[in-house]
Write a structure and sequence with these properties.
The chain is an alpha/beta fold. The protein has 15 helices and 14 strands.
């Protein structure tokens, strides 16, 4: 049986898609990810280095994320993912730059006789050229793409849930796909998507969970963030498109700027010179002390604020977007919001999205007239 290594391209959330794809392919698989969570989950600036993570399991010179792993001062869903699924997730240290990560990938492939590496990205920003105006967070995708090339190991870039991260437009994605000429395509079966969702719907990854829901037949236009168009959930989300890594790297103009980097500071600086906004600077500006509302109930005033703010072309709204509108912008606030939505809407709420018609109906009948915090 072939052995595959699945790398989460943009961060831990891409592991959800990787797990589903591995099950669909019925291959023997190992998984790997960097540890860099949203500032709302972890205030640490930049990716976590090996000395910033406690409880990593040691296997020879390699490190595995375990159920006992934790990051001081923050939270990552990876230990819980490993605890609940039992899958092996190897830690990739992004602080070592593309050269160090390439060495880790090569070492894993040699040690475990890996046949092919899949760099899995939910949404598709990994196939960007680097000049797209909506591209917000290319650092880890670009770093891992460069590392895959530098490792010299056989690899493919897999994109699923095209467009669901809201970074590239449908026109930009179509242009990239045409230019890259896919190596192959496959469909994620709905029964596998459903099984993965039922196990991992708690995971804080909107793009990956929306992909699974779309494969299962939940379709519509979802408002995920202010200032951008709603993303579309449809039958195309089930398509996993595989690209040759060298072609993707050649198209992505950012790759050459960071290839050979020795640390993440070099990566961030190179991307700034390329014209990107520094992701480290953005995190440094994040106010870790800003108040996050802990929602105990949703009032009619809250519902009105949501309807006043939501994109008028949307059929659904995401949990994170509701939190953005209501000021529940940290893990505690989003957890409390998720809890109340589950309590009030029960099966009509499929995390991380809510149908606006359902919400509108429920707001008339279930929500209180005033805040009860």
């Amino acid at each position: 049986m072939n052995i595959s290594l699945y790398i989460a391209s943009g961060g831990s959330g891409d592991l959800i898609s990787a797990i589903a794809l591995s099950e669909a392919r019925n291959d023997s698989a190992l998984f790997s990810s960097v540890v860099w969570e949203r500032a709302s989950l972890d205030p640490h600036v930049g990716p976590r280095g090996m000395n910033d993570i406690f409880g990593l399991a040691k296997e020879s010179e390699r490190r595995l994320i375990s159920g006992k792993s934790f990051i001081p001062g923050g939270w990552s869903p990876l230990p819980q993912l490993v605890e609940e699924t039992g899958i092996p997730v190897f830690y990739l240290d992004a602080t070592l730059g593309s050269t160090g990560v390439a060495r880790q990938i090569s070492d894993l492939c040699i040690a475990y006789s890996i046949d092919v590496v899949y760099l899995v990205d939910t949404g598709g920003d990994v196939i960007a050229s680097g000049r797209e105006p909506g591209l917000r967070s290319p650092a880890i995708d670009t770093l891992l793409l460069a590392a895959c090339v530098e490792s010299g190991m056989p690899s493919l870039v897999t994109v699923i849930g095209s467009g669901l991260d809201g970074e590239l437009t449908s026109t930009e994605l179509a242009s990239a796909k045409k230019e890259l000429a896919p190596y192959s395509e496959e469909l994620l079966p709905d029964h596998i998507a459903g099984r993965t969702y039922s196990k991992l719907s708690w995971f804080p990854s909107e793009a990956s969970l929306m992909t699974l829901l779309a494969v299962g037949g939940v379709h519509g236009a979802v408002d995920i963030k202010s200032g951008i168009d709603p993303v579309r959930l449809d039958e195309k989300c089930a398509i996993a498109t595989n690209y040759r890594t060298n072609k993707v790297a050649a198209r992505n103009r950012m790759v050459d700027s960071i290839r050979g980097s020795k640390n993440f500071i070099d990566v961030d600086s190179a991307l700034v010179r390329f014209g990107c906004t520094s992701e480290l600077s953005k995190e440094r500006k994040y106010d870790i002390n800003r108040k996050s509302r802990l929602i105990k109930t949703i009032s009619k005033l809250d519902a009105e604020a949501i309807f006043d703010s939501v994109n008028t072309s949307a059929t659904h709204i995401s949990l994170r977007r509701i939190g953005e509108i209501l000021g529940a912008n940290k893990k505690s606030g989003l957890d409390s919001l998720d809890k109340i939505l589950r309590s009030v809407l029960e099966n009509d709420y499929l995390k991380p999205i809510l149908h606006l018609d359902t919400f509108r109906h429920m707001s008339k009948n279930c929500f209180s007239g005033e805040e009860k915090e």
